[in-house]
Write a structure and sequence with these properties.
alpha+beta, eight-stranded antiparallel sheet, 26 helices, about 45% helix
Length: about 800
């Protein structure tokens, strides 16, 4: 005891000497043997009273912060055998991956999984790989074996005794197996491999545990077998077992080892697929040759570094599925050993992924917990009889991620998609907690002071395409925030706050989207960003709403004001909250059948008020771009055409893309100057940004892409969305003629119908190049149900216009 005390005092003595140095080092004082060790309240007990005691104890640990780990999803009775000293849960977002085509023996099926991760772009990348696999006919997988090890260690007086023990165990294998298997309905002892190291013997108990991962199960079985051995061997041989332990670290439990790779621990599963040249080109944006070259050349450094196995990043897929299905997270690193194999073929690229140590189960552990159980149900892998299927699906999803990530690295998309979008030193950004009554009273001029605020769920389906893209570039408060403001007068003000991202952040979000589509497209988008309508969108929308209110136009939601703070990057709009109960039509971009001729007239009449009010006015203070400037970005639109031609090859749209290339050449030769007067145009004038109130009035919002251009641009886009497929040419011409009569109010009588239609053809081509091209590309990542219809309808409308122009010539 004196020697032990001396050793314990040595670190303290060293620390005391260091404390006299210039940089003082603080060290813990040794606890007096009689001192009371502070225990966590309710130690080892999981019942409501103990839980409350521990949560109260948490409050004493961190001053000024309420540590709240409360969970609505788990209850005490569910976790009794899963954790001690329970205080709550942690949350990891779940993303849906799939569908992935699984060739399961003689039948095909679509499979999905939920992936738990906080790594942006991971789910999107896995989905891209799943799409490429599925387009190529799906994947197949095969189980070689399922094993679980426990390796007790026995110590003897001499090697002679150890060797005798080795032979005795071999002779008694059947008896030992019977005793071990009595402890479980699932464990099957396949063999015992003996490893003699001097006077020590390690017994590798190798089990099949079927649908359970089996770590705990094999421990219990092996322990009973060891008790038998410890008693029986000395009685039969007169040799003494000096000591034994349940595991001498020979099972590689939760550790990486070459033995496990070669001999098995967990499930050994192999997935394979043949990726077609078409899927490689269209979905993965690469070629079989480039993929194989990168794979082959990188093998040398992996061998040089002594990498165990070879894969790109299967740990991401395995960790995400483990966390969502209640697996043992400590087994992630051993389960993430993988061997990826690629081989070019005439048909495309053969790929296989071997996972030799996948330690998973569909029973036991955390698989019974609610989220884990639901995810296993989603994969049709819940309960007994499912572990082999579960391993096969994990291999398929991991292979999906391998393909997508390697393709992104090869094509340059990886760097672009994972570049640092947000800044490392954020400014004093606006927080939702800042949006209190004082903020509203100081920033907005309501008729009566705000007394309290009630924040509401967002009634919109989502925050919009541009907002969602902006969120890829910043963690600022961005989006739509509905609230009821309770005024001191007793009245309630229903409004929605719109917090804007910077135009540069929107461009970064667009770049992120393009990076997941095509590397060249992403580079072009970045190079041309200042020439696009997305520049300064944060200032533009504020300025436009202010100008519309000053002009006394009632075609928009009621505008309560704006907050602009360059230092904190606050660009905030307060608008009337549109109530769906008070609207005839809302978010109707996918329902052209809902748009009656009277509604279309009303929308055209409403936007005409804007066009007339701002025609030939000085718009320099509105931060607008000139719509004609898009011609300078023609290399970007050519990149869009090239990408979309590949992606929509299956729809036989090549003649349309050929025409779009002709538009670019036409604009380069003849320019983009129209004959009518320029004005303020909405430039994103589709039914997503237009509502019809119950009093038949149109309400137009989301002006962030406004430009200075020809009024026909708004009319064409609106009708491209609101005209049904197979529309009658006569109805379109009636609407155009009516708008022509309105346009003459500010263009003059000398502005002919032919002039009007030629301008309409001009903006139709620019709409197809600028906006429809964008939607087509984006829809490969985020499905826009309207895009194929709008694409074809736009060309059909343009054909009607050009026929009418020829008739008038």
């Amino acid at each position: 005891m004196e020697n032990l005390a001396h050793l314990l005092c040595v670190p303290l003595a060293l620390s005391q000497k260091k404390s006299k140095m210039k940089d003082k080092v603080l060290s813990p004082q040794p606890m007096n043997a009689q001192a009371h060790y502070p225990h966590i309240p309710g130690q080892g007990k999981n019942h409501p009273e103990a839980l409350q005691l521990r949560r109260s104890y948490l409050d004493t640990l961190v001053k000024g912060i309420n540590l709240n780990y409360d969970s609505q999803g788990l209850h005490l009775e569910q976790i009794q055998n899963n954790i001690e000293n329970f205080v709550g849960t942690t949350e990891i977002p779940l993303g849906l991956v799939g569908p992935l085509l699984f060739q399961n023996q003689d039948q095909s099926e679509w499979v999905h999984t939920a992936l738990a991760t906080t790594e942006g772009a991971l789910v999107a990348s896995m989905n891209r790989g799943a799409k490429a696999l599925s387009e190529s006919g799906g994947f197949r997988s095969h189980i070689l074996h399922q094993k679980m090890l426990r390796t007790p260690m026995f110590t003897f007086q001499s090697m002679h005794e150890a060797l005798a023990f080795d032979q005795w165990v071999k002779r008694h294998f059947e008896v030992i197996r019977g005793i071990a298997q009595e402890q479980s309905n699932h464990a099957e002892l396949l063999e015992i491999k003996n490893v003699v190291v001097g006077k020590i013997v390690h017994l590798k108990f190798i089990y099949s545990t079927h649908d359970a991962a089996g770590q705990n199960m094999t421990t219990a079985c092996t322990w009973q077998a060891c008790l038998y051995i410890d008693k029986q061997f000395p009685e039969e041989t007169d040799f003494e077992i000096l000591n034994f332990v349940i595991d001498g670290n020979g099972a590689s439990d939760k550790k990486v080892s070459f033995y496990s790779m070669q001999n098995g621990r967990g499930i050994h599963v192999i997935a394979e697929a043949l990726i077609t040249h078409e899927a490689l080109s269209r979905t993965l944006r690469t070629t079989a040759e480039d993929m194989f070259r990168a794979f082959n050349h990188s093998m040398a450094i992996s061998r040089f570094d002594g990498m165990i196995g070879y894969n790109i990043n299967i740990a991401n897929a395995i960790a995400g599925i483990f966390a969502s299905t209640g697996q043992d997270l400590a087994c992630i690193h051993e389960s993430s050993i993988g061997i990826l194999q690629l081989e070019p073929t005439d048909e495309g690229l053969y790929v296989s992924l071997s996972l030799p140590n996948l330690v998973v189960g569909t029973v036991g552990g955390g698989t019974h917990l609610p989220i884990a159980s639901q995810t296993l149900e989603l994969m049709s892998c819940k309960g007994p009889g499912s572990a082999r299927r579960f391993a096969q699906l994990i291999a398929g999803f991991a292979l999906s991620l391998e393909l997508s990530t390697l393709a992104a690295i090869v094509s340059g998309q990886f760097v672009r998609a994972h570049q640092s979008l947000g800044r490392n030193k954020p400014k004093n950004w606006l927080l939702k907690a800042d949006l209190n009554p004082d903020f509203f009273n100081n920033q907005f001029a309501f008729h009566h002071p705000v007394q309290s605020i009630e924040w509401l769920p967002n009634p919109f389906e989502d925050n919009g395409i541009l907002t969602e893209l902006s969120r890829k570039a910043t963690k600022k408060l961005i989006g739509l925030f509905p609230a009821d403001l309770h005024l001191e007068s007793g009245k309630k003000l229903e409004l929605i706050l719109k917090s804007k991202a910077l135009g540069s952040e929107l461009n970064q979000g667009l770049h992120f989207m393009a990076s997941n589509i095509d590397a060249k497209l992403a580079d072009e988008l970045q190079a041309q960003q200042t020439k696009l309508e997305y520049a300064n969108s944060h200032l533009k929308e504020l300025r436009v709403y202010q100008a519309l209110q000053k002009a006394g136009l009632g075609i928009m939601p009621k505008f309560y004001g704006a907050v602009e703070n360059e230092e904190q990057e606050i660009y905030l709009l307060a608008l009337e909250r549109l109530n769906p109960d008070q609207l005839q039509l809302f978010n109707a971009e996918n329902h052209p059948e809902a748009w009656t001729l009277e509604m279309q007239h009303q929308v055209i009449r409403s936007i005409h008020q804007v066009h007339k009010a701002f025609a030939d006015k000085d718009l320099s203070d509105l931060e607008l771009q000139d719509a004609e400037d898009f011609r300078e970005a023609r290399t970007l639109f050519q990149a869009f055409i090239d990408v979309n031609r590949k992606d929509y090859q299956h729809l036989n749209l090549d003649p349309y893309f050929h025409k779009m290339q002709g538009f670019l050449k036409e604009f380069e030769e003849k320019g983009t100057k129209g004959k009518g007067r320029k004005t303020l145009i909405h430039n994103d004038f589709n039914p997503r940004n237009i509502a019809i109130r119950n009093n038949d009035q149109a309400c137009i919002y989301d002006w962030e892409l406004a430009q200075k251009g020809l009024a026909q641009r708004d009319i064409f886009e609106f009708l491209a969305f609101s005209m049904e497929a197979g529309f009658k040419a006569n109805r379109l011409l009636v609407l155009f003629d009516w708008h022509f009569s309105l346009a003459q109010e500010y263009n003059g009588k000398e502005y002919s119908r032919k002039d009007y239609l030629e301008d309409m053809a001009l903006v139709a081509k620019s709409f197809l190049l600028q906006r429809v091209n964008f939607y087509l590309s984006g829809s490969t990542l985020v499905n826009y149900p309207f895009i194929e219809r709008v694409f074809k309808t736009s060309f059909e409308m343009l054909a009607v216009v050009e026929r009418e122009i020829r008739r008038l010539s």
